[in-house]
């Protein structure tokens, strides 16, 4: 009797809710209103990277809210929508299919795996992908990847710029000879991506690089750090993500390795990564493609107009964290691209193909950045048909125990070296997929 | 009254042994096939095809494989996702390096996966139950490690991701969602018929005997080792083909993260919810899993308005876990048993029994 009752109750609930769902699907249409610029956001507020994902989404949404408060994009209001991917590729693809019918201007997957899965689809559907600071480094070659936009420094530029910074600290490029650098990376495609470029640099400048892969999820790295201690490196590069970023800082403290000789990738350079490590993180260095902290006029404006009026999309204390600023920059790049497209196509909601024009002709000058209040937050951005990497510089920040402090100027990568590798890899992709690279003037 | 068996005479052995002996069953299956082949491609929008139908079919195939191993033969396995990965990467290499026709690539992927599955099935000679789970877990991690570290397998792509080349059958390219859906449908139907006949015959009965009482089946002469290995290979074959379908027809670009341990757990969940030891159960379980997140999303949005996306996702996990517990307590034979009960009631209707 008990079992049958439970099961029939369950069946009734199931049927009732199915009726509700299908009824709603046939419900009346929405009332007519002024056309809005629809922008989808792929967020991961669950899953192993929710600390980073929630920060990114918060920054992004705060910027759109501010733009709306200030009158929208030439009068067109932004309507943003979140789709939860949980950093899972299949769900990312499902989100893409779901938002496709609403004519999004572009897709920002915030995940390298999802970006890879969407490249072919998005290219066929003519919807651009923005993959800032992650994704395919060879997508910087716009002749092959028409619809993929790294927009900011790609991973290969980052790696060479890291070496340049190390040389700066050591006192010159000649001092790199004989140096020992440990590349601690997640044993995962994202982590392994920069191995070959570090080896190219090692051959060129005469330093020794040794790779230490961290098996996923990288919570226990004691044995790896014993090996690192045996190697006696001068520098450790920290290329992890999520909790595997925090563990090396503690382990380095344990083996007595100076934290100011640890250089983390920007996904290991946010408050969420260093705070759990406590006092051990003091002095830890991380790279960044943006300025840190909330001292910038634009962030102050967000705090004033968005948070103090209760419209904030993230908790107050997290405004200005590194991942928040990344989300903010994605928002700024999106709206600037929309404005660029609007100049050509008119002041109305912008969709796929038109956004591709906007993203490819971005020219955010220093004056415009000052106008936006982001001076020091981001460098000037210029994309073109051939070059989808809007800027390729990075800076280094240091954790002083309470906040991130910028300790370097904008550092340039070894541009020629990176561009050669990018074009080689893009050509391989073009051959695999049977794409004819387009001609750019 | 609706589902009656009287009046149906089967004069030949072939008719008696048919999968669907009753005319109502045959008609029902016919209508289902017409809907699947004609109605859905004509009327479904792209979202239904790419995000619901294709994953549903692929996961059903994979669950079918796991059901053969866990449901029919009773060998618990948590390495299924890794065998899917083997199939995916093998079919990619066959297509990319040797330029074989796509169906041969799927077959090759399945066969390679079967070979590796057989290898990891060898420990079953000595170990059972939970200990077998651990050794299949070893399969999961070993295969993941090999694929991550052996660059040749992923086409020397710097990120370890495989970009599948475009598909072509008899000169006609398969790149629209409808074509991919139809290809997946055909592959799944052929393999399902194969599986159904396999489990109805001598081999299937041997598997069931191993599951029910291994000692007794050994005594009456069923070779334990041979049939267990066969179960591993067939199940891995299905997993391999499913993995190849994921790579070519569903995602187009896969990394090894697609085939992580979590997917093995999901597949086991699908087998449990759908019904262990049942072909229909695999489809029901997979359909349930594919539709559950979307369903929860819609219901919550209708009843509660705007809910932050992380609450929705956590709600899915909670409901999924709760349902597994519910099913294991109330109906251990899963949704397939529910269907059998309904059929039984339909046979006797309007009488109560």
Structure notes:
The complex is a heterodimer of chains A (441) and B (353). Chain A has two domains: 35-153 and 291-391 and 414-441, Rossmann fold (3-Layer(aba) Sandwich), CATH 3.40.50.2300; 155-288, Rossmann fold (3-Layer(aba) Sandwich), CATH 3.40.50.2300. Chain A contains 15 helices and 13 strands. Helices cover 45% and strands 13% of the residues of chain A. A seven-stranded mixed sheet of chain A has the order 6-5-7-8-9-12-13, sandwiched between helices. A two-stranded parallel sheet of chain A has the order 1-2. In chain A, strands 3-4 form a two-stranded parallel ribbon. Chain A starts with a helix and ends in an 8-residue tail after the last helix. Chain B has helices spanning 13-16, 23-43, 46-72, 80-97, 102-121, 129-149, 177-200, 202-212, 214-219, 224-251, 261-274, 279-304, 309-330, 334-348; strands spanning 162-163, 167-169, 172-174, 253-254. Helices cover 73% and strands 3% of the residues of chain B. Chain B has 14 helices and four strands. In chain B, α7 packs antiparallel against α10 (224-251) and α12 (279-304) packs across α14 (334-348). Chain B is mainly α and 353 residues long.
Short summary:
The complex is a heterodimer of chains A (441) and B (353). Chain A contains 15 helices and 13 strands.
Features:
heterodimer; A: 441 residues; alpha/beta; Rossmann fold; 7-stranded mixed beta sheet; 13 strands; B: 353 residues; mainly alpha; two-stranded antiparallel ribbon; 4 strands
